Amino acid sequence: MAHSGINVLFEGRNLVRLFGGLGTTIEIAAVALVLGLILGIVLGVLRTFPNRLLRLLLRLYLEFFRIVPTVVLLFLFYYILPRQLGVNMPANEVATLVFALWTAAEMSDIVRGALISVPKHQRESGLAIGLNRWQLYRYVLIPQAVSLELPATINLVTRVIKTTSLLMLISVMDVINVGQQVVEANNQKYPTGVFWVYGIIFIMYFVIDYPLSWWAKRMDKKRLERANG
Amino acid sequence: MAKQILKVEHLEKSYRENHILHDINFSIDEGEVVALLGPSGSGKSTLIRCLNGLEPYQKGNVIFNGKPVVPTEKNWQKLRQQIGMVFQSYDLFPNLTVLDNILLGPVKVQHQSREAAKATAEKLLDQVGLREYENVYPRQLSGGQKQRIAIVRALALNPELMLFDEVTASLDPEMVRGVLNIISKLAQDSNMTMIVVTHEMNFAQQIADRVLFLEDGHILEQTDGTKFFVNPQTDRAKEFLESMDF
Ligand SMILES: Nc1ncnc2c1ncn2[C@@H]1O[C@H](COP(=O)(O)OP(=O)(O)OP(=O)(O)O)[C@@H](O)[C@H]1O
Ligand SMILES: [Mg+2]
Q1: How close is the Cα of A150 to the center of ligand 1, in Å?
Q2: What is the pTM of this model?
Q3: Which is an annotated GO molecular function term of this record (chain A) (predicted)?
Q4: What's the ipTM?
Q5: Residue to substitute from B46, B48, B92, B95, interface A, most A β-carbons within 10 A
């Protein structure tokens, strides 16, 4: 008689290992998001400056990270670049770097979009009271852009968290990778264990991402209501 | 003789091929009120925006307090504390309260202490009858109230010259009078030097010491306020006044 599949989770240290994997995933996502969002805000501001060369370079950066699939980026940074450049980084750090750079690229576009949609009159009124460029961004443009861009930012965050499921491809011991190992190790004893392992991983991602996307939706709705009312 | 605040010499402005302002020359003395009148598209906004560096110009000089302005962004930025401007669209910063809108310039640009700046701001708010609104956000105000606050925001920097560009043009008719009264009071009681662009001919007649009449980017005439409305020098100005039902 086959054992009930759910018990695979309570076999040995399986559950602890799965949560450990989740911890790694969250850590990489969190560090990458913090670094990426900050860098993205800076790049987004720079992309509204008049300097054409700067804008072109940042645009190329964005397009590169947008066009190249994340899987390819991970392979590129983990297998190819180290060999070419002779640097050796642990998989976790490579993953953090790739996700941070990707987040920064997407964030720069969100920030730029929000900044240029602040009405031109706001910019001129700021200049007219003698603000310099830095003060204009600091007190007038960025605060207004933030409320415009918040839903898009949260959506980006959920996307990044979801995409961390690719981490196993560069052998980071993330939750998916641990899950796979658990499934393989227990295949004989629990043939249906695979459903339970991926089921719990699904729930883990859901519990993290769903409140975020709910929040983003609610904010967007509120903003529409305010705009129409 | 009164001190000269601003002088414009041979100013030329174009957008690409499009020549907008042609050889503009005039000056304004301390305490003087100049009305800048002319048909739509004649270049009034463009000219007034050249005077605080919001628009670049290709040729000519702006001389402020006897010193020619070297037109760099940095120089204009400093001068804007002395040359206040209020626009047609009442664009208070929606992310700040009324008081913070007003204090931003004095505190961040002029580095006044918040207490001192607040005392000045409240005095000005009293003058425009909006003291009790200092802690509300702009979205809670009517257009006329917003425009009065925008005027206070500019005055809080204690400028020597004020530029008004059709500040009542987007207001509901019942709001217009209140805003115009503030500008008149500013001219009479505070003896503020100002350049006023307006479509309100009665108002212009009442406050203007001098009228600059602009058409197609040329100053066609500069006439005393008392004379212009009764007896304009050019036929074009005559037609303009008629078209304004004046
Ligand atoms: N940013 C711009 N780019 C190109 N042309 C412009 C720009 N701004 C204004 N113009 C042109 O300059 C001319 C003068 O415009 P301006 O806004 O100064 O006129 P105005 O006298 O203020 O008119 P109104 O009474 O309608 O406000 C117009 O022909 C206008 O089309
Ligand atoms: Mg205009």
Answers
A1: 36
A2: 0.83
A3: transmembrane transporter activity
A4: 0.92
A5: B95
